[in-house]
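Two proteins follow. First one:
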Amino acid sequence: MIDLTAAPFSLGADDAAWVSSTLTGMSDEQKLGQLFCLITYTNDPGYLNYLTRGLHVGGVMLRTMEIDEAAAAVTTLQQCADVPLLISANLEGGADQTLIGATHVGSNMALGATGSTDRIREAAEVIGREARAVGINWAFTPVSDIDLNFRNPITNTRTFGADAQAVAAATTAYVEALQAQGVAASVKHFPGDGVDERDQHLLASVNTMGVDEWEASFGEVYRAGIEAGTKTVMVGHIMLPEYSRALRPGIADADIMPGIVAPELLNDLLRKRLGFNGLIVSDSTTMAGMATVLPRRDAVPRVIAAGCDMFLFTKNLEEDFAFMREGLANGVITPQRLDEAVTRILALKASLGLHTSDNLPLADAAERIATADAARVAETVAAESITLVKEEPGVLPISAERYPRVMVYDLEQGENDFGNGGKAGTIDRFVTMLEEAGHQVDRFVPGGGWEGLAAPTSDITENYDLIVYVANMATKSNQTVVRIEWASPMGANVPAYVPTVPTVFVSLENPYHLLDVPRVRTYINAYGSSPAVLDAVLAALQGATEFTGTSPVDAFCGRWDTRL
């Protein structure tokens, strides 16, 4: 039985009665609809009306929109819904991931690098305020994975770092501050990403930890999040085989499933051992981590049957609804399990007060977003997170007087899926900033030829006083690795002049680039590429501010040569 009076729902008698009466008044079709949190890229009333009155969905996630478009979408959704909706969003790093023009407060790793839980609370408060202004009431944050494998292509700066105790403390601060703004948190990605070097978007990845090791790391993080009152936990396409074997002695390897469809992980571990009483939501069910282990017809109802309360997204809307109906009809989902899941969905809504409010965006929503106070938080996070990993004595600070002629080597990619920065054109802005500071700046253009035909080294050594590498390469989903690929011919842009020309390497988005440039003697990690970060980087390079950030991960990647 579900104790609705216990944390994290903590419902009073009237609220619990609303949950009970609402559940009783629902048909099976309406209950099945509540299981789904779908997605919208539009504020089209016809589509939104179909989701609410046609499919009776329990929640809708907003993709990136203008602020007024998001407000219009939320208004239509809540006015059409018979049962108030959970309005969710990815808000990693800031509400700007969903609301164009909102504040980017900084990646989780930037927050971790400040070493301050006060900064984490301030950032979460800004995110919560801006989201709530347009009616978002459920954030798919914080990412509480532990970044233990520098080769992991998806965790990286999305995490608070590699130290379990620090991640646990950050998770606590974030959850408490976010939920104080009326936005439900979702600690993710249970049972824990950051161990495997593969992307769960592309396969069912593996957390290889033994039971004791997991308990002392991810277990502590999830206990911290649960104790902090997180209302929801998001489960990933991640297997935890040693724990599955401990909970199901004799289980065959082929029967070990990713968390999203693993009842021993959801019920025995998360519910019973960790004591989580809130709502369990699946990660996106469109990811290949589920598709590679089960036929979709079987997988769709098994997500709910295994212990998830809410099903995130659909691959094909009509087909997945049909698969869920079929699962109820053939007993994969029992009536009792359906009622349990819907009860928790309704209890989450009641705990947020959705049943007693119109849940509409604030009339002055636009004025509450990207405020001067929010900008101050972003600027402070940036300034306190910039990390000087290695320093060659005498190279810093830089100025136009010391280094009038600068060669910039830029390493950049396109826009990052997660909105944590990584925007194309960032290095253009940084070059402009150097020029405005009085430097004459050239950007390296690969050329020359192969053996015996390359340009003489004196073209660099005699014409430039300083070399600055700026890497703007962010991890993103469905990308298997983020490593530097050097230009032809023969790695034309590698740091070949470190012994002769003062060289500084600034990594904006990935803290692990020392692996590929181990001989660089002055190396800086910034954990983002927003305007506030660029300002903070240049101020620190110029000596106007101190480098105060502390690396939340092993930036040396466990290698001796990166420390040279």
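Second one, unrelated to the first:
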Amino acid sequence: MIAIARGRDFLNHLTPDRLRNGLMTLPPEKAWIVLAALGLFSGLSASPIYFFPALIIGQTGLIWLLDVSVDAEKPGRSGFWRAFLFAWAYLGIGVFWVAFAFWNRGGAYVFFGPLVAIGGGAFLAAFWGLAGALYTKLKLRGPVRVLAFAVVILAAEAAKGLPFTQFPWNLPAHVFPAGGAVSQSAAWFGAWGLSFIALLVFSSPAALAGQGSETQKRLPVLISLLVLAALYAGGTQRLGQADVRYQPDLTFRLVNVDVDQRDKWAPGGEAPVRTRYLELTASEGIDDVTHVIWPEGALPLFLIEDSVSIAALTEILTQGQTLLAGTPRRERTASDEYRYYNSLVSMTFSEERPRVTGLYDKVLLVPFGEYVPLGNLISSFGVRPLQELVAGYSPGPEFTTLENADAPAFFPMICYEAVFSGIVPGGAGRPDWILNISNDAWFGPTAGPRQHLNITRYRAIENGLPIIRSASRGFSGVIDPYGRMPARIDRRYDGITDVALPLAAAPTTYQITSGLLFWVLYILSIFIVSAIVIQRQFQK
């Protein structure tokens, strides 16, 4: 009883103001440790754990620790390093699976695994650092600082997705599992709009401590609870009204070959891999299949040029069937050199010679995976391992909707392209479905393939379009227009799965308006923060 009483007394004294004051009085070296710990703990909010309260605790603690920087001698510098340390741990733990890809390749690449993962995390964290510097420069002290925090951090997240960095991975919205009730709000606001709302909601407890009346402190939390309840209710209603039907007379065969990347790309590895893909493709029921799908880079060769593969496929696909396959592709340039592309090819087979009915070259390439930013500069150093690392693919000229593959028009997304919002056309050019092929085998049993799947499912919700996904040692299957998976294939499955194609839902608000609701909400928030900052400047 005494222990219970003491525990109750301790909790009664554990008020937001006491917690904030305790953090603010930490010496710098201890504050840095706490920031790193909060960042690591916040990483639990990402897939596959989805423990979003961790991000609430992390963001609240970060804001309270940034409150110290507001009164520092050099607030910008202090704010930068505090936000940077938090983000380095938070973003770094979320993408550390990148290192596994380099370890998987072996050889000279092994050294670059930790370097890219740790250095890449630091590079991404620098954007949060700049946001922290700006936040502290605003010198806001009351509940409005929660709004300012959400504004600057979302700007940092957007900077991560710029053409140079191209890494909008694990946005705040992604803490909500795709296909669930809250995730349905992406149909109205998009993943970016839901991310902004998540930042506002998750940081609202920080307003409970600091300046302001008790009513002013509690209001952001109350509003956040109401917003979360509204998102959940609206999403539940949307799912309750979902009526998913399927395209008649189409059957897609997803071919999954469980093969280690080192074996696949080893000398002579193409023969056994090709044999296994052909065996599975020809499995029982092939005559009832209209389309066969092979994942990104299924064979370690140039499929379009490989007469052995084409001849074998001609023996299997004899009913006018279509193969949709990922393959590396090369083109000879005017200077008699080769340019390489990561491509998707559509090939229709009949008694006559097979026809290439569609071709798409990947536009958005993976930094440090398919190309290296500033690659020419790195190559100029003359260090052979660096030069090997730089060699890679060229980007395709433009996004393309493929319409001649004996199926409704579809929008191809190769691997990493599925993490980007807003690239699927709407209006008259809206496709009927999305095909996402990927090679997640490089990332092994890490969180990477699961995070990739969750992010991809958000594209279905945003656009109201079904997705057929084929991923080597990733998660394949069918995603309906609401982000749910009526067919899901485990990453280590070796075999075939015949699936039907869901029909598209009605165009979403997000797609029709190009994310207008998000932009209105975000610009209005910037205006409110700016107005308060200007007003306080005049009051001085």
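SUMMARY FIELD: The first helix runs from residue 2 to 13. Residues 453 and 475 are 7 Å apart (CA to CA).
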